[in-house]
Amino acid sequence: MSRKVLIVDDEPHMLRLTELSLKKDGYQILTARSGREAIELASRELPALIVMDVTMPEMDGITALRHLKATPSTSAIPIIMLTTRGQTITRTEAQGSGAALYLTKPFSPSSLAAEARRLISTLATPPSTP
Description:
- The protein is α/β, with parallel strands linked by helices.
- It has a single domain, classed as Rossmann fold, CATH 3.40.50.
- The chain is built from 5 helices and 5 strands; from the N terminus they run βαβαβαβαβα.
- Mean pLDDT is 88; it is low at 126-130.
């Protein structure tokens, strides 16, 4: 199981805060500044989890999310969407596009770390057989 987590955000301070929230759990952190860069890095590195901002230049997070979920090699990677927007339409759009979780900024770093552990451990746990 990969210990890599890809963090995608165009704001350096949010990128750093998210990185610090997850690094203490021993994850290898990869970073990208746009949806397009996230797609390229995720396809190459196949992280265990992606934490991605919604609003970014060049390619927004929802578009990148849809692309990652439509690509066989990255479709199973859980994606947590982060945004300053609390709009219902964005949340619905993210969840309908395959986001595992949607968090509104500011977020609790400990909550983000707990959700990351939960999502990654869910992937590592084999399904039970009847």
